[in-house]
Amino acid sequence: xxxxxxxxxxxxxxxxxxxxxxxxxxxxxxxxxxxxxxxxxxxxxxxxxxxxxxxxxxxxxxxxxxxxxxxxxxxxxxxxxxxxxxxxxxxxxxxxxxxxxxxxxxxxxxxxxxxxxxxxxxxxxxxxxxxxxxxxxxxxxxxxxxxxxxxxxxxxxxxxxxxxxxxxxxxxxxxxxxxxxxxxxxxxxxxxxxxxxxxxxxxxxxxxxxxxxxxxxxxxxxxxxxxxxxxxxxxxxxxxxxxxxxxxxxxxxxxxxxxxxxxxxxxxxxxxxxxxxxxxxxxxxxxxxxxxxxxxxxxxxxxxxxxxxxxxxxxxxxxxxxxxxxxxxxxxxxxxxxxxxxxxx
Length: 345
Description:
Elements: H1 3-40, H2 49-59, H3 62-89, H4 96-109, H5 116-129, H6 133-161, H7 163-173, H8 177-200, H9 202-206, H10 209-226, H11 234-258, H12 267-282, H13 291-301, H14 307-340
C-alpha cells in the first residue's frame, strides 16, 4: 500500500474515533438537556444544546482565557529548555529556536494522528541541526517518559487528596452494595480467566513478532530512561519539569475562573479535572478529541457540575488550547523554522 495512502487511512481512522466519541457525548447530553427542559417547562424550540454551547463560549472571561494560553506557552518554553538539556547530555548542541518551534509543529501534527508529532519533531530537529535522527528520537523517549511519571504522580496525588470525594460519589451513585459486590466478583472472574489464558499461551505469545516488537520497545524505553543520568544539572531539569506540569495544572484552574458554572471550584477540583483530562489526551484519538471531553466531564461530575455545563467547559478548554493554540503556533512554526535556518546549507 502506498505510504501516503496508508497515512491518510490512519488519519481517517483516528479522526473517526475522536469524532464518534464526541458526537456520542453530544447526543447523550442533548437528550438529557431536553429532558431537563421538559421538567422546567421550557419550550422545545427554546431548548438547544448547540445554542447553549455558543452562549457559554461567548460568556467566558477573556482575561482568564488569555492567562490559560499564557500558561500553555510557558510550559512549551520550559519543555524546549528541558529537551535541550537532554540532547546536551549525549553531546548534541542544538539551538533553542529549533527546539521550541519543532515542538509546536509536533503538537499540531498530533491533531491528525496520535503520537506522530513526536516522530515529526525529532525528524525536523535532526534535519535542521544536522544530528542523527535516532539520537534525537531517543531524547524524545526520555522526555515523554518523564511526562508519564509526572502524570502518574499527579494521578496518585489527586486520588490521595480527593479520596473522600471519589468514595462519596461512588457511594451515592452505587447504593446497591449487593450489585457492587456482584460486579467486583464478575470483574475478578474475568481477570482470572484472562490471566489463565495468557499463562497457557505464554510460549506462543513470547515467540510471536508482536511480543518481540513490544519487548524491543520496552527495552529501548528503559534505555532512554537510564540516559537521563547524563543530564548535567538535574535540579534545573526537575525545575523545568515542575514548571511544565504546574503550567498544565494552572490552565485548568484558570479556565475554571473563566466560566460561571465552574468558577466556584477550587484547586483540588482543578487537580482532579486536570489529571482526568490528561488521561483523555493519552487515549488514541486526534489530540484527545472526544476522550478528553468524556474524562473531563467524569471529573466534574464528582463536584456536582451538570453534564451540559461540564461539556461546555471541556469544549472551552479543548478548543482554546488543543485547537486554537496548537494550530496557530504550529502554522507559525512552519514559517519560523525556514527563517531561523536560512543560513544553513
